[in-house]
Amino acid sequence: MLVQATIYSCLLAIAFFDFKMRAVYTWLFPILGISLLCLKMLELRPVFLDGQIAINLLFLLIQFAVLQLYFKIKTGVWGQIMDKKMGWGDVAFLLCIALYLPFLLFFTFYVISLIIILGMTAALPTWRKSNIGIPLAGCQALLFGFCLALEKLNVLDWETLLINGIEKLAL
């Protein structure tokens, strides 16, 4: 119970600071990552030598490399996309949840959360201003907290939902 309270507290703090200041205290991410690993251990899922973590991290590495290549093609120069197009808090948050979720759930959460946030960005004119930016880590923290709460309350079983969705797509 303490581990879950710590996770939800970190998620709410990340969202609060990202929405309010567009900056998140860095000490929140190690606490969130360690708490998610502890929750994973409490659920009797493998933590050390877990191939899912390696796959998630590889996915993020490939995704950031593609993003870097995209901006190279777009601008014509190799540039630093961090702090210009994407914040370090966004990356740190993704690294934290990569420690907890199996790859298919991580990938699904990542894609669906980006689609939801893109829709919110289209609907909220203040987020479309380039000087303000989108509180990506804050939005994803709230969405992840919501998903985690539904899972812990046994309202939804994300793995079963994902498997059923894949089976329906295959038909």
Structural account:
With 171 residues, the protein is mostly helical. The protein is 71% helix and 0% strand. The chain contains 7 helices and no strands. α2 packs parallel to α4. The N and C termini lie far apart (41 Å). The model has no long low-confidence stretch (mean pLDDT 86).
What are the salient characteristics of this protein?
mainly alpha, about 170 residues, about 70% helix
- What percent strand? under 5%
Mean pLDDT: 86
Number of helices: 7
Ends distance: 41 Å
Q: Helix/strand-derived class?
A: mainly alpha
Determine the fraction of residues in helical runs and give it as a percent range: over 70%
Helix and strand sequence: HHHHHHH
Major sheet size, sense and barrel closure: none
Global geometry: globular
Low-confidence stretches: none
Brief description of this entry?
This protein is mainly α. It is built from 7 helices and no strands.
Topology:
Elements: H1 2-21, H2 28-42, H3 51-75, H4 88-98, H5 103-123, H6 136-152, H7 158-170
Helix pairs in contact: 1-2, 1-6, 2-4, 4-6, 5-6
